[in-house]
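If you are new to this repository, start here. Below is one unmodified record pulled from the training split, so you can see the exact layout before writing a loader.
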Amino acid sequence: MQRATPATTRRLGNGPKSIVDCGSFATLARKAGMLEALDRALRQTLPSPLREQVRFANLRNDRLVFLASSPAWASRLRLMQTQILATASAIGTHANSVTVKVAPQPPVETPPDRSKPLSPTAAAHLRAAAASLTDPELRALYLELASLAETAD
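And here is the target side for that same chain:
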């Protein structure tokens, strides 16, 4: 028995779309710009601590979708639903409801601290280890590392 619709054109659920279903790059860029402008306009009306903890994610089926960094911030944003919908209406966006999903913000990566100097004692141990090595290349590497030690004043 054959399928009436090819399997490649059917989508199940809300998963990723096929590249063919996404439209042109210009269309995607225009939608991204529109969503960014809507994000700025809607978050601008929120109180300062809340504004930094939520992000506007999408406008889907007359529903404004926000992402909050924790359940507490999500609850605070839900309490502001009337104000958010009024702002959206004032700027010409038709929306009937606000949905808030909890999505923790990605952690800020801190670069590793590479400024820790090598102690004179560690340098002495490296020199002693270098003296016991038979491989000249490895010995040179140990001595080079030992030369990075702090000098005692």
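Two things worth knowing about this chain: The radius of gyration is 29 Å. The mean pLDDT is 84.
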